[in-house]
Design brief:
about 10% strand; TIM Barrel; about 50% helix; globular; 8 strands; alpha/beta; eight-stranded parallel β-sheet; 16 helices
């Protein structure tokens, strides 16, 4: 991997769900609430691992209201529940050390967009108290793990206020929860948050929860503008089996699904789909020297991970050559391309004029 590609790295979420993908991927984002057996844990130590806290799982289960703060040794869901998990500041630090995480994030309580101001700030205060406790513990429990902070907002414009509340001296990596991937306006919000972080002096960021084209394009643009020393991102979209109920392979040229209206049969030969992408197929052969035929049930996951990596590397190359705009105009419908180009322009203006200028521009083009 050359230096350019190292500046933006993709972390597939919980690759342990796919034996072949877990065996062959070099990176992984692992949720602290996911149980891992001893054999997989040993294999995890050979990878570049980021750990997420599991706060979202607590919120979606409606459990956080029963916890004054995420302090104390651990919290467990209902006894005997097969979906039970532990979460807590000490317990998470122990898990981060156990999984040899290079980077891990504070336990936090994500807000909903519909939260009232009172609810939003109540969650923020709990996240801050848990963060303070966790970072004190981390020095002793997981000293080899770099701790990062997740910035949880209801909408992009709140990022400055939330950063002001939770920012901690010595923390180098901040994560943002990227907006939903489908609407063109969301690219503008993601660019706005990246602009703020650059302007405030943050040089390493993580984008939680998406490997969409628009997110990767913005990462490539930010790296080309030298806004950040490193950008990492994660997603579950590599594992179509778990999210859509069947096997689908990802097109490495545009990250759409190759199969539009059907799923792959588990025993089908994946080469029939991949052979139309000569350069990508050569990459798979070079990396993994796979057998022929390429059984879909075994190889779709790792090929999807590499499709995202391939597309990411391609966008980084285009960013360095200043050809991203041409690619977007050529590949996207006009409505989507205009907003994505606007988002890229926001990043350029952030570098040239500062975030104050971007704030006014964001209001005018949104």
């Amino acid at each position: 991997m050359n230096d350019l590609y190292r500046r933006a790295v993709y972390y597939p979420v919980n690759p342990m769900a796919d034996i072949r993908a877990f065996e062959l991927t070099s990176t992984a984002l692992v949720n602290a609430t996911v149980s891992i057996n001893h054999r997989l844990l040993q294999a995890l130590w050979l990878k570049d691992v980021i750990c997420d806290s599991g706060g979202m799982q607590v919120v979606t289960k409606g459990l956080w209201k029963n916890i004054p703060v995420f302090i104390g040794s651990m919290f467990k869901t209902t006894e005997g529940d097969p979906g039970a998990f532990f979460i807590g500041t000490y317990n998470n630090c122990r898990i981060y050390a156990e999984r040899n995480a290079r980077l891990a994030f504070n336990v936090d309580i994500p807000p909903y967009g519909s939260d009232s101001d009172a609810e939003y700030y109540r969650k923020a205060c709990k996240s801050i108290e848990a963060k303070n406790n966790m970072f004190d513990l981390a020095k002793y429990v997981c000293p080899k793990t770099e701790m990062g902070i997740v910035l949880q907002t209801r909408h992009p414009r709140e990022i400055s206020d939330y950063f002001g509340l939770i920012a901690t001296p010595g923390i180098e990596t901040y994560a943002i929860v990227v907006a939903s991937r489908t609407k063109p306006l969301h690219a503008l919000g993601n660019a706005y948050m990246m602009s703020f972080l650059h302007d405030i002096g943050v040089r390493r960021i993580h984008l939680l929860g998406s490997s969409s084209v628009s997110v990767i394009v913005l990462i490539a643009q930010a790296i080309a503008l030298n806004m950040f020393n490193g950008c990492t991102f994660d997603s579950r979209s590599w594992n179509v089996l778990s999210t859509a109920g069947g096997l689908k392979s990802i097109n490495p040229e545009n990250l759409t699904h190759i199969q539009k209206k059907h799923f792959l049969a588990p025993n089908s030969n994946l080469w029939s789909d991949l052979q139309q992408f000569e350069e990508f197929a050569s990459r798979i052969v070079k990396l993994f020297d796979p057998p022929a035929p390429l059984t879909a049930s075994e190889w779709t996951g790792i090929c999807n991970i590499e499709a995202i990596n391939y597309f990411k590397d391609k966008m980084l190359d285009m960013g360095e050559k200043h050809t991203l705009s041409e690619f977007i105009i050529r590949r996207f419908p006009e409505k989507q391309s205009v907003k994505l180009l606007d988002a890229m322009t926001l990043l350029e203006e952030s570098v040239k004029f500062g975030h104050g200028f971007v704030k006014n521009r964001y209001r005018s083009i949104k």
